[in-house]
Input
Amino acid sequence: MRFRYHYPTPDNYEVENPLEASKLISDDLLNDLNKIASENDFLNLSYSKLSDDFKKEWGISWDNVIILKYLMSETVLKMPPSKEKCILEDEEFQEFGVKTFKIADFLRKNNFKADLIHPLDDTISLRAIATQSNDAVITRSNMCLFKEGLNIGFFMIKTSIENLPFKNENSMHWIKGYCSTCGICIDRCPENAFDENEKLKRKICTAHSEGCSICMTICPFFKQGYEKVKKRYDRKCHKK
Ligand code: SF4
Ligand code: SF4
Output
């Protein structure tokens, strides 16, 4: 069982989806869900409620998503690009994929519909879904930044649960202004993988083929963490 580009989502479930799924989760069960995610080494969860416009744009009919976040190994990310690094990154990714099936099985056992969203599917952007949680933004280098760090990997489960603790506001939009004054990710890309509009040229970027992660590891959000960068930015804004 491995996740691969252009292959269907592997079927590693041990429990079938319920025929008549429940739609409301109790606080106790939500706590249990968070506990089991933590026991499986996930950092924490975010939740996206996809708007009608979003569903229309991406041609989907489901709207409740649980995002399971994990910390990608800093040691691996700091390695120079190599085949070995690609393998280590993929192993870590696949390992958390297996764990995500366990979380989906837990939900199914409790009578909720739960299906993994293929993490390598070109037909839907997981980053776009992540920003709908209001816990993340897309940086200038096209990375998905959560407050927990830039080195967050994630898997997603679409579910019948309608009363997840969705957030209505995103307090991270200041990052757009911060990125506009920085730009070192663009300047230091060894492949010049950004076009004149700073759109990432995926065919040129070597993140997947060779394990490049320079734009991540030189970013202040990776080096210092979200809170430190935010404090410094706020101080600077107050001085103006
Ligand atoms: S390196 Fe600078 S411009 Fe690039 S994502 Fe990080 S903060 Fe934004
Ligand atoms: S991963 Fe490497 S090649 Fe790709 S955009 Fe970042 S710095 Fe450039």
Q: What stands out?
A: The chain has a mean pLDDT of 94. The longest strand covers residues 64-71.
